[in-house]
Amino acid sequence: MSNIGLAKAGIERAGRWLQGALRALQDERWDDAVYSSQMAVEQSAKAVLIALGIDFPKEHDVSIVFEALSKRIDISEWFRRKVPEIAKAIAELAEIRGLAGYGFEQGIGVEYFKDYAPKANKKAREVYEACSKLLKEAFKT
Length: 141
Prior knowledge:
Blueprint: H1 3-26, H2 30-51, H3 63-67, H4 77-102, H5 116-139
């Protein structure tokens, strides 16, 4: 499969994670909403990196690699302006992902994420929409 094909599959998967995050919010599964939001952000960002042929570490936080996109002149200006905000969301959500997925091991309950879950979902939606728009614009995905 080509990089563009992989990127398209990645952004589609990110969209499904985003749907899952919204459903988790509706069900008041706050930890699941945060976890799914993080996955939507991660896969959206990685879809862009894949499309551009950029190698990235096989880890959840690819914010450092993503930040370099702000200097690429072959990417739309509107997206380059969003890169710092997207990179911040990538790092922030990657940091809390472990607690959202495994906080129960430390006695952290679902209510711990109640206030943050809607914010995480908003960030995920914004990142997904920006990455999806860029991929459609640049690669007709």
